[in-house]
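Notes to self after the call with IL:
- keep both proteins in one doc
- input above output, always
- annotate only the second one for now

Protein 1:
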Amino acid sequence: MWLVVVLIISVLAGVLAALFLGQQSKPTSENTQETPVIETKKKKKSKLDMTANLAKKDSSKKKTSTNAEAKEAVSTSQFLKTVCRGHTKPVTDIAYSPCGSYIGSCSEDGSVKVWKLTQSSNRPIYSQINVKFDHATACAFSRDSKYLVIALSDSKELKFYGIKDKKSQDKPEMVEMSTFKTEHKDTIGSVHFGRDNKWLVTICNGQDTRVMFWTPKGKLIKQIDTKQLKNHCGVLSHDGRFLCVATQMAEVKIWECKCDKETGMLEKVDVAMTLKKHTKGVQDISFGRPEFPAVSDGVATVSDGKWRYYDINIQHQIGEEPKLKLESDTVEAQAIAVAPMSGRLVAVALAGNLHFCDKKTGKAVEIIVNAHKGGVTKMIWNKEGTLLATTGRDKAINLWSNPQI
């Protein structure tokens, strides 16, 4: 009897032992199955670590690049003398007064400003007038710096303002003088005063290819036509003798403005010479400063992405043609300005950067990276060639010192 009981207990113990071992084996198998999952997580973590490491390396490279750019900006910004801010929309034109004390500017925001440049302040003070229901597209100072003329976009009118400056530290006063309507049918892109302020010339930026000469009172004196598809801009030489108009055509004509020696009034406008060697239309033009009265030393042009410098100190009366002195190898030139006083420096806008180049070699003397956000649209030197004013789509006017001075 006891033997049977012992056998039964042994069997039951064996069954219980088997069940217990089965329960232990299940977690072991589960742990075995989970092991690859843990390894996979480890691999993912290592990939993340690698990505983080790469990101850190890229970040360090960017910081190094940024530091290098910052150093470059510091080295080039030494030529940035002043920044004129105040316009709320892009500037359409800028002009230097012959006396060197003022900069005139007009903008798409309808404002016209006269900035007074003082040595005692890095921030020029300005006077402002607002054009109602219109805006100015061009501006120019008279030869004696006493007047500023603006050309209006929609009405095609010319408005004259007197510039009064009583105290050296006060902002100049702008007094509206007179207005007359022109006969242009397109946007006036350029306006210039002739000799002794006896006449003005207006050139459109568009399909109205007529070039008109006016008295300050609005009388039309002369009219010529480039007879091209479109005019881009027009420039009058510093001595008022030559007029050059950039058009869609490759050849650029230069007219001679002949005035009465006693009265200074314009009498004749005749074609004097032609600038050749361009393969496309010309976008911008700049005259060099005359070496002595009635002789302009050269003219620079921008076409097909290149800039060219011509010697026009020639005897065009006997058929002598302008001499091409230099053709740049760049393909991104957009605007140009020759330093006055027969200096060797030419300012060239290249893809948003400002290059100061030697007009005899074409090599850059100094390069300003990102002179304006969105690129440089207008450039003009002061009379002495010591300061260059530039503007772009960023609404600012920057004044740069001449790197060669």
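Protein 2 (the one to annotate):
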Amino acid sequence: MHRLSLPERYSPAPTLAEGPVRPFVVGLVVVGLLLAGAGLAIWRLSRPDPYGAAVAALGPTGDPGGRILAQLRPLRSIVPPGAKLNYAQFYEPHPDSCDGNPSTVGWDPATVNMAFSDPAPSPLPYVIARLQQLGWQVVEPTTSWTKVLKNHTSATAFIDFSDGWEFTATAPADGPAPTGC
């Protein structure tokens, strides 16, 4: 059997994986990506951000020195002995607009959220007594309370039972509240 072979002078054309074409194409792609990224960055930085400007105009904090939230932290003690604390969340005020519109930006309130299991007797007598000890006044018997804070604003607190006991307290931040909510 005789094998056919290509003449010595024949050689296949170079592919993109070899030869001088590949570095040139790779270089073009890299330069193109760099130019596109730089253009996007310049466009983004030169574009005015009305929401960011509205947030910046609010000032550095809605709770200077954490004084508002500090007055809500003792509420952690309303969880009765024997109850299992599922979570306790303490949130500083933060800028919000509720609808994303810069003209409605303001400070969300300082907030405490807690959830706990239902111990065997009802926790309400303990919670009510503890809230009274902390200076809270009843608004709705067994469901809502209010307290005047040191900055002369009123904080509110609510307790509810669904799958477990949920307690929420809020206090207005220093500065305007969001509108459009």
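Annotation: The mean pLDDT is 82. Residues 80 and 163 are 17 Å apart (CA to CA).
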